[in-house]
Amino acid sequence: MEKMQRRLNRSARSEQGITGLETAIILIAFVVVATIFAFVVLTTGVFSAERGKETVYAGLEKARGSMEIRGGIVVTATGTTLTVEDIQFAVATTAGGEPVPLNPNGTTNRTV
Question: Which of 26, 44, 72, 84 has an alpha carbon within 20 to 30 A of 14's alpha carbon?
Answer without folding.
Answer: 26
